[in-house]
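Cross-check.
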Amino acid sequence: MPSRYTRKKARRHKPSIPGRAFLLFAVTAILLKSGIAAKIEDTVRQSGTRFEAALMQMHEQPALLPIPGLADPNGTADQQSYESLPPNHVPPTPEVPQTKTIPVTIDGTTGSYDGSNAVYIKNETDYTIDIPTLLTSKDPVRLSGDQVQVLVMHTHGTESYTPTAQYNYTPSDTDRTTDCNYNVVRIGREITRILNEKGIKTIHSETLNDSPVYSGSYNRALEDITAYIKDNPSIKLVIDVHRDAMVSNNGTKYKTVASIDGQQTAQLMLVCGTDGGGLVHDSWQDNLSFQLKLQQRLNTQWPGLMRPLNLRAARFNQHVTAGSMLLEVGTTGNTMEEALSSARLFAEGLAELLLERN
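Predicted model, tokenized:
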């Protein structure tokens, strides 16, 4: 077994919110002062990856359970047609739902995170991770040739954000929509666009693997990834784009934010899978090594952009390539504008890192 990690006694971390949250958010400051915010990430985080991971570790083929409102895999259920209306007809503008959201910034400067400086890990496995060694060791993620290098896809493509005047939509289900102009597929389009502009040939799967049913999303996503790699064996990286969820029992949403060049931006989080759940995943150390280097690059260039990397026992289909990663772009409380802002920074930083390796 590689020396850069060892088994450790299982433990749970209790992440906390850093003391230097945005001064302009008075509510956030109160939470920090009271100590309540230190428990937010663990007590309200309801990420779909956790639910799906539990099912995967039991069988990897969970029973299909229908989700009301997600019955249209083509996304037409959320799109109203005005073709039969007069040319001068102006459709009414729907009111933007008013949702209570609280902005927070989550980094590793306080709490029980492993790491230091720009690199921190929220370790939910029974492995002890040697971060300095992983940051300096060589990983196999390298671009080569002029064929497709990157696949952007979505296990939970219907995940969406808090509506705004510009990005207002009617949800198909709670914080979800099959309209790809308003869910994380829109984020994937932006990442794909920038990577291609930087000269990294990238393709994007807009398949909604969580529609019309949520359970089994990772199994369908694996079929999606496998099909693309079969047609494009040159693919080196697979980026599974999600958004996280932090919602309290009373419906209050927490959005993770960073101030980048004076602009409020959604925080990002990498989720790295392992073989800790018993599934074969021989390349997880290489995945982790690359993701830690990417984390270091992004947080150094744009301090606060990245939340601590989340290391998990489930593998999340990251066994397919040594460059696989799961990217959480903001939470349900964030807006599409904030998510697009951070997605652009992610794509720019990733492109720089990859091109330096040629």
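Confidence is low (pLDDT under 50) at residues 6-38, 46-93. Residues 121 and 309 are 5 Å apart (CA to CA). Passed to J.P. for a second look.
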